[in-house]
Amino acid sequence: MEAYFVAIAIIVAIYTLLALGLNLQYGLTGLINFGHVGFMCVGAYTAALLAEQGWPAPLSFLAAAILAALAAYPLGLVSLKLRDDYFAIVSLGFSEVVRIVVTSERWLTNGVQGIPGIPKLMGFTGSGLVQASAVLLLLIAVNIVVILVMRRIVHSPFGRIIEAIRDNEDAVKALGKEPVGFKVRVLMLGAALAGIAGAFYAHYIGYVAPDQFIPLITFQIWMAIIMGGVGRVSGALVGTVILMAFLEGSRFLRDVVPFISEVEMASVRLGVVGLALILFTLYRPQGLMGDFTRR
Questions:
Q1: DSSP conformation letters of 175-203
Q2: Whole-model pTM?
Q3: Residue 276 falls within a domain, yes or no?
Q4: Comparing C-alpha atoms, which of 27, 19, 33 is closest to residue 162?
């Protein structure tokens, strides 16, 4: 049971990195990014391929963050001058293009068969629960650093400008600031965090394949930040915990309703999360960590 809880905590920590990146893009800047999992995919495959070549983990993680950020740069230049709804569509298309590329380029990514045998992180600590606990502690440390940096960004002049872009982009232009440059940087920062999350995911699971990076991952992260509180750093963490509690807690519904098959239970789990999202939207639209003085 301890191993199960540690495994769930690791996934929560990885998803928290994704949620923090998306919260920076949407919660603070207003960018509707439906292709977040594409950057996670870039980071995961980068880390996996470099690990196969014997690169040390710190360098492969750095490369994963850089390549994910670079992948966001042209997307930002092409798309950020579009209206929000068009950018959402383009970003979703981008994530599917990434998945198609890793599927078709078999010479590099091994196609649909994926890349197995990715070395585990913190292997020097041993194996089993000890090693998993060490990975969890590392992820917690990384999340703490990211949260502290996020808080610095929020209270910096850069943070005030991107929040102004979110609230009234035309007013920012009237003040002589060019929103596109700020949007591109925010998109790259969020993508870098997704790349790091992907690298952690690849090393933890030990195997990457294209079907692990479907759009559902992106929409689960959207659910997390909406339930936790859009624009709140604490909301990304709390929302991710709530999401995972629903996803994993619903596994035990079979004890109550044993007549539901495993296949049907997958749909029930999504239904439970969807119902929670509807209830939050109706009764707590600002999220659990949002402003308690308004509804």
A1: TT--HHHHHHHHHHHHHHHHHHHHHHHHH
A2: 0.92
A3: no
A4: 27
